[in-house]
Amino acid sequence: MALADSVGDPRFFARSGPHSLATIATLIGAEPLDHPAASQAVTGIAPLQTAGPDDISFLDNKRYAPLLEQTRAGAVIVAPAMRPRVPPDCVALVTPEPYVGWARVAALFHPEPPPNPGIHPSALVAADAEIDSSVEIGPFVVVQSGARIGAHTAIAPFALIGRGVVLGQHCRIGAHVSISHAVIGDRVRLYPGVRVGQDGFGFAITKSGGIPNFLSVPQLGRVLIDDDVEVGANTTIDRGSAHDTRIGAGSRIDNLVMLAHNVQLGRCCVIVSQSGISGSTVLEDFVQIGAQAGLTGHLRIGAKARIGAQAGVMSDVDAGAAVVGSPAMPIKEFFRNVAVLRRLARKGGADKSGG
Amino acid sequence: MALADSVGDPRFFARSGPHSLATIATLIGAEPLDHPAASQAVTGIAPLQTAGPDDISFLDNKRYAPLLEQTRAGAVIVAPAMRPRVPPDCVALVTPEPYVGWARVAALFHPEPPPNPGIHPSALVAADAEIDSSVEIGPFVVVQSGARIGAHTAIAPFALIGRGVVLGQHCRIGAHVSISHAVIGDRVRLYPGVRVGQDGFGFAITKSGGIPNFLSVPQLGRVLIDDDVEVGANTTIDRGSAHDTRIGAGSRIDNLVMLAHNVQLGRCCVIVSQSGISGSTVLEDFVQIGAQAGLTGHLRIGAKARIGAQAGVMSDVDAGAAVVGSPAMPIKEFFRNVAVLRRLARKGGADKSGG
Amino acid sequence: MALADSVGDPRFFARSGPHSLATIATLIGAEPLDHPAASQAVTGIAPLQTAGPDDISFLDNKRYAPLLEQTRAGAVIVAPAMRPRVPPDCVALVTPEPYVGWARVAALFHPEPPPNPGIHPSALVAADAEIDSSVEIGPFVVVQSGARIGAHTAIAPFALIGRGVVLGQHCRIGAHVSISHAVIGDRVRLYPGVRVGQDGFGFAITKSGGIPNFLSVPQLGRVLIDDDVEVGANTTIDRGSAHDTRIGAGSRIDNLVMLAHNVQLGRCCVIVSQSGISGSTVLEDFVQIGAQAGLTGHLRIGAKARIGAQAGVMSDVDAGAAVVGSPAMPIKEFFRNVAVLRRLARKGGADKSGG
Questions:
Q1: What per-residue confidence (pLDDT) applies to B263?
Q2: CA of A6 to nearest chain B CA: how many angstroms apart?
């Protein structure tokens, strides 16, 4: 199975086009075009390596700049600094935010299909659920009593929308998602297998019977997810215990992340995959957490703080700080430690072999 | 979407009450009440910050003691040491285990609804499955041939109870759970998306064909889950290969945990989220494992040992020991290493800039 | 619930046999048998501890050699070096690859049932999907428009085979799996809860509105999974953004692994549970990644490289290299660092208490 790379395989993606370069330049706010081919149109998008004269491509990561010089693309979206490296036959669309431009152009050529309104006959929707007529409810979906689903939202097969759950407008709920005890805003996307609203990990330890024994603590809070949040596949967000678990507007959460009960994320937080945040920890706005990082409970992470991949955070982090390591420390200190230990180990090894 | 915090939102939770403080004191074994308002009743529960005069609250974590002094709650469950900090208008219910008391009171005001006996018409239950008449089987559940389900157990939508699986009494099986090759005791709770009984990660490497090649090893054991176990959302428990995978009574497993084939957990082990235990490792009773810790295979972890978050355990751990770090070491040694390295790095940095 | 260990519990596994030791020796390529009991047959398989005279067992891990000397098994599969430790009443089947032999014998006694051809009446299969007549489609499966499923493939309950997805022959798709935007080869196994083909974690950050804002980047690639791949429970494989995500033939991926968009795995890579590989990182053939390891994006990992458990890999790794630690370093250097730090900490502690 040696398939060539493909962008926008028509089996999987809708297509539109061709679109003129002038239209595209306007769409992405690029500088005025000054190339002889600027009046032409392109029919598709492709990465630099495989793009042909009818395609538009882009460069964002400088690591791939050598590919730019060799591309056969008809046009390319680049930052100003890269303009000199664009081949002469290729029209440069210059913008300070080429990746943003790429996002817009990709969506132009491959628009996401709108929901297909209606309730699939195999779905089970409670009689008292309030479903806007524009909503798409897929096969084998279960919507329980009292749930409310806003306009233009689409629910994929096998999703469970639990009793009383509120979903806003223009949401996309993936296959096999389960949601309970939650109020969810507009334009929220939950990818397949996401778990929202199940019991948090809460139990009391009683010794009254002589040996330790665990007693479950009722988890009586909710999950509140604000507008424009995305949650990656198989991520779990437990509901609050005596408070609510909250995800601030615009936050982006990757796959296999664990958010424990009462966690609060501010606006536009970014949580990369396989990270975990323990109970009652609060992230202010614009916090970024790298992959596989872990935060203990009851912490406060200041706005715009950055937590590195695999960090183990055991105390509060100041706004704007960047930490990494386990236990987490300022990023400079971490790499200084690494370097010092390496130096000592080399000497130590020499001492040892010399001794 | 700026919703106020809520405990026991009636859309999601049942309610009972009011309940008299005398009843509550008896329920939780609190000291006799000696407050003028002790004969009154409360109508609900709430955290310290939001509780009003008709609510009962609690304090367990000393970190939040300042909230106690300012609470408007009508009554509060506290440990003896906190009694002096309870405001004069607030009735103190004093107990050595306030969190246990809170668990009981929360369940009093918000009792979990019992199963609703019956098999949903959309469920597919094999003719030879043995289902107690008190069992609740939800929409789109599949129960395969020879499965047995004990009294008062409830199965949520989209769960798969595989061929021959045995489930005890009073279990709660969450949405989208899959169970195969397993025998499960009473009062076991599996949260949404749990995977029990699939093939372990077992293959032999053969070089007979010249290049290495993988040959799957049939996984012929089972998963045995004893009474009173809870398993968090999207956790995976593989079945044994030539032994059984075993989870001891009362153990609590959080979300996104990985338990490999032939792992054995003793009684009342606690495994926090995103931890992983490799094949054939044995945990004795009351072992605690912090979040994101990893244990290699074929180890023995002694009773009451504590493994810290993000630890990487590569050798046996003595009973009662506390280890952390990767590779794991005694907790004191770990933090001494951290401190020494920091000191050296500061000096080293000075040397370097001075050199 | 004190159940004895069981191999091949008939509630869960098919059985065949008895089989003669001569047949078995031929099957596994063992040396010619020279034991008086070599003409006999065995009726089942069992681990060394529980096997009786009618059972065959095996020893692969030297750690368990003492069990060999005490086994009551009728026959045992061992490496040449272990032959002297086989008890006199036990027939030794000697082979350089005893674990491979065990895999073959276990499959002989407990063969995997073939698919049961047909489409369950509750399944929803699009009219234009191409399904071979030998395919098994279980209850509540959804197969969307344009999907193609090859001969002898079996699809478990609640699986979603998305629009246009291609599945090869002899595949096994577990319960609650979701697949979209993917082309999958022959003999591929996806365990329950696997997510294939959902959107990668891709967004552009625009500051055009004054404050940072996230704009989703359309994810227009696919997931290509080559022949003989296995993917563990609840693992997530995102589709490519402007390239394809690729999994090379024969690769084995454990549970709860995260493979981000555009990741490429070569042939026969092994990824142990809870590891994560960030976007666009390339693994050449035969790379092994231990549990809970993490790789940042845009790296190249050379053929046969080995990444240790919990490693944090931030730069390319040479072919054949073995690294561990976070940040990852050669394995020798890592353990030298650990030893040196321990030595310094002991001295440092002494200095401190002495100072």
A1: 98
A2: 30
Amino acid at site B74: G
What is the number of other CB atoms lying within 10 angstroms of the CB of residue B191? 28
* pTM score over 0.90: yes
C98-149, pLDDT tens digit by residue?
A: 999 999 999 999 999 999 999 999 999 999 999 999 999 999 999 999 999 9
Q: What tens digit of pLDDT does each residue of B19-75 get?
A: 999 999 999 999 888 888 888 999 999 999 999 999 999 998 888 899 999 999 999
Length of chain C: 355
Q: What 3-state class would DSSP assign to A285?
A: coil
**Domain C177-204+215-331, CATH class in plain words:** mainly beta
Smallest Cβ–Cβ distance between B158 and the set C12, C158, C309 belongs to C158
Single-letter amino acid, residue B93: L
**A282 and A302 Cβ atoms separated by less than 8 Å:** no
How many whole angstroms separate alpha carbon C200 and alpha carbon C198?
6
Pairing, β B19-20 against β B41-42: antiparallel
Say whether residue A291 is in contact with chain B using an 8 A CB cutoff.
no
- Beta strands at C166-167 and C195-196: parallel, antiparallel or unpaired: unpaired
Of C58, C85, C18, which is closest to residue B242 (Cα–Cα)? C58
A29 touches chain C (CB under 8 A): yes
State the Cα–Cα distance between residues C220 and C48, nearest whole angstrom: 52
Lookup result for tokens 């005069």: B53
C213-216/C203-206 β-pairing: antiparallel
SS3 call for C23: helix
Structure tokens at B230: 């809870």
Sorting pLDDT into bands at 50, 70 and 90, what band is B352?
very low
- How many of the other CB atoms lie within 10 Å of CB of B240? 29
Q: For the domain with range B177-331, which CATH number is right: 2.160.10.10, 3.30.2350.10, 1.10.357.10, 2.60.120.10?
A: 2.160.10.10
Ramachandran category for residue B65: left, alpha or beta (phi over 0 → left; psi -120 to 50 → alpha): alpha
Q: Is the peptide bond before B327 cis (omega within 30 degrees of 0)?
A: yes
What is the rounded CA–CA span in Å between residue B314 and residue B305? 14
Which ranges in chain C are annotated with CATH 3.40.1390.10?
A: 19-109
DSSP conformational letter for C38? G
Backbone angles phi, psi at C225, to 5 degrees: -115, 120
Using the beta-carbon criterion (under 8 Å), do B195 and C255 form an inter-chain contact?
Answer: yes
Predicted confidence (pLDDT) at residue B18 exceeds the cutoff of 60? yes
Rounded Cα gap, residues C49 and B87, in angstroms = 64
Is A237 in a helix, a strand, or coil? strand
What residues of B are in contact with residue C342 (Cβ under 8 Å)? Answer: 329, 333, 337
Instruction: Determine the residue type at B15.
Output: R
Q: Which of A195, A264, C293 minimizes the C-alpha distance to B255?
A: A195
Measured distance CA(C31)–CA(C94) in Å, rounded = 6
Q: Name all chains with 3 or more CB-CB pairs below 8 Å to chain C.
A: A, B
Do B104 and A215 lie within an 8 Å CB cutoff?
A: yes
| pLDDT higher than threshold 90 for residue C34 | no
* Residue in the block written with tokens 């009462």: A262
Q: Could you tell me how far CA A179 lies from the centroid of its own chain?
A: 18
CATH label, A19-109, candidates 3.40.1390.10, 3.90.25.10, 3.90.320.10, 3.30.70.20: 3.40.1390.10
Secondary structure class of C92 (helix, strand, coil): strand
Work out the percent of chain A whose per-residue pLDDT is above 90.
88
pLDDT tens-place string over residues C68-109: 999 999 999 999 999 999 999 999 999 999 999 999 999 999
CB C98 within 8 A of CB C79: yes
Q: Are B22 and B33 in contact (CB under 8 A)?
A: yes
**Interface residue A247 vs chain B (CB under 8 A):** no
Residue A207 confidence (pLDDT):
82
